Structures are given as C-alpha cells and as structure tokens.
Amino acid sequence: MNAGANHMESLDGLAMADLIVGNSTAIREIRGLVRFAAQTRASVLITGPSGTGKELVAHALHRASTRAAAPFIAVNSGAIPRELIESELFGHEKGSFTGAMARRIGHFEAANAGTLFLDEIGEMPLDMQVRLLRVLEDQKVRRIGSNDDVRVDVRLIAATHQCLESAITHGRFRADLFYRLNVLPIELPALADRIEDVPMLIQHFLSRGFASDNPPVFTDKALALLMAHDWPGNVRELKNLVERAAVFFRGMEVGVDQMTMLLRPSRSARAAAVAAPAAVELPENVVAIPTPMAAPPRFSRPMDLREHLQNEEKRVLIEALASTGGVVSAAARLVMLQRTTFVEKMKRYQIARDVALSA
Ligand SMILES: Nc1ncnc2c1ncn2[C@@H]1O[C@H](COP(=O)(O)OP(=O)(O)OP(=O)(O)O)[C@@H](O)[C@H]1O
C-alpha cells in the first residue's frame, strides 16, 4: 500500500465504515465510490433526498483524500442571498461596492488546496453558474473589484436533492456545468430503500449521543415499528428520533407505546391535549380537566388567575405524560422538573398515570 492509499484509509484514525454507517449493498457501494473518488481530484456530484447524508459523504471524501489536512469548506448555495453569492464565492476588494468595508477572501480562496462543498447547487442562479464553470475550467478566481486573477487549487464537490436533468430541460440549470460537475456521480438512496441499515444507525447514534453511558433499550417490537416506518426525513429523521429517545428514556426500555409517541411526537401531544381528559375513563377520585387547551382569558367577567394557572399546569403535565407514553421520569425531564416534584404535582392535581396511554 502506498503512502496515499494509507492516508486514504486512515481518516484520522476512523475507518470509512465508522463515518458512513450502514451495511446495505447501497451503502457499501457508496463507501467504495468514496474511496475511489478520494484518489482523484475530479469533481463529484452527490444526489439524493434531503437527510440522506450528502454532506457527510462529501466530508468523508475530503478526509479520505490527500487534501485532508487542508480546509473543507461547506457552502449552502440556496441559503446565500442572491446579491451576495458572487462576493461569498469569489471575494471582493475593499470599496468595490457599498458595504465592502474591507477586502474579503471568497470561499474558493479559503478552500485553496482543500475541498469546496457546494450544497444545493440546483439553487445557483444562472449567471453564477457561468462564473462557476469558468473557475472550474481555469482554476482561477477574480475578486469583485480586482483586475487580477488568483490561482486556486480546489476540489469541488456539489450536491443537490433536485433532479438536475429536469432543471436543464426547464432552462434553470446549464448543461455544460452539469457535465463538468457530474464527472463522478454518487447517488444516495432514501433510507426507506436501505431499511436494513436502521439498526446499525441506531447503535451508531446511541453510542455518540447524550446518553451514551446509559442509553435507552429498544424492544424488538419497537424496532419493528422503526423498520416499518417510511422515513420521509431519512437519516436525519432517524438521528433526531434516537436523540429524543436518549433524552427522554435514558437507561429505560422503549417499547411500542413510547416508540409510537417518538415517531409522532407533535401529533400525539396534540391528540393528548385535545382528547385525553374526555376520552379517558378516570378513576373516581381523579378530576377531569375542563378545557385542555385553556382558552385565552377573557375579562367579560372576573377570572381567578391562580385557578387558571393551575389548570394550565395540569394540562402541561398531562401533555408531557402523553408524549412519553406515561413514563413519569421521561415526562418530568420533558418539563424540566425533578421526578419527585412531578409525582407530587400529579398527586396534587390527581392525574392518573394512564391518562396519557389512552391519548
Ligand atoms: N450513513 C450515515 N452514517 C452516519 N450518519 C449519517 C449517515 N447518513 C446521514 N447521517 C447523519 O444524518 C444527518 C443528515 O445528514 P446530511 O446533513 O449529510 O444530509 P444531507 O443529505 O446533506 O441533507 P440536506 O440535503 O438536507 O442538506 C447528519 O447528522 C449526518 O451525520
């Protein structure tokens, strides 16, 4: 193995499989493509739906390449105001336009010797696409207000969740830039199309998350729910779910009820708020709460503020219990109370623990 290849596999001590996690055929092929691309300096176009790991793959590619010691600059093309794109990418000289108080180096110069990752390339305005193409061909940039070119050695990785071929057909993307970027295409599939990666990704996120010393344990049935979910937000959605589980259910078992709540947190919380008090068969000594979403106070008649606040507090406690499938310690964490304080309040308001479960 030569020095370059050695460097390529080292990734600061991490293996590529620790970074781009998964064992599906698709992910294994992607790791192979990334290793291959890292040995070249050709432009790479990464496509795939939002949250599938495009930026992660770009970063892994940079870290596996001989450029790893130089900067990796990630730029979201869609997030830069149109009038600032040129200056952001190519820089400007002092006084070159109103507001240019000092010389500014653009992202291309900042990424010199390293990698520039242009996310959401499909959002790039057409005139900037022309500029970009020229820079890629000449490897030179010119700051706004300057007469001199600056030579840059930048490896470009672009990404998009859009279909650029269709953007070309509709005149929104230049075909010549597309071919210049698409030298090495990497296509990331939706998580639902590589569902077998879910358990490994869960372990990965648990081992790196907030509760890595005492993570929650997902039951087989809870895991089955995750394997049946369609993951519209892809890996990002799974990561967020695992992080929520780690916060609310630290060291606890996460079963079907809790998982259902985690998969639909806002909807279930809403349902609990609206349905719980009316739908639940409460024990005799338990008081039902009149209006779950307390109406804004109106002062056509006197209002008892203390009673109003207590009703609000009851409602929030019930909502927290509903969100966690009735797990008291998790509900307490949700509203930033000690478990003992939460239990005291449940007693005071005569809230039954199973109120939430029938939400
Ligand atoms: N295979 C994977 N292994 C480990 N983590 C992953 C994997 N895929 C994605 N992630 C993680 O999921 C999150 C979303 O990934 P990333 O931001 O790279 O997606 P993206 O496709 O660039 O999204 P967007 O199109 O919205 O910008 C990140 O925290 C990333 O680290």
From TrEMBL:
Query: Which CDD domains did the record assign?
Result: AAA
Q: Keywords for this entry? A: ATP-binding, DNA-binding, Nucleotide-binding, Transcription, Transcription regulation, Two-component regulatory system
What's one Pfam family the UniProt record gives for this protein? HTH_8
Q: Which residues form the Sigma-54 factor interaction domain?
A: 20-247
**InterPro entries given in the database record:** AAA+_ATPase, AAA_lid_NorR, Homeodomain-like_sf, HTH_Fis, P-loop_NTPase, Sigma_54_int, Sigma_54_int_dom_CS
Which branch of life, at top level?
Bacteria
This protein's name = Sigma-54 factor interaction domain-containing protein
Query: Which species does the entry assign this protein to?
Result: Blastomonas aquatica
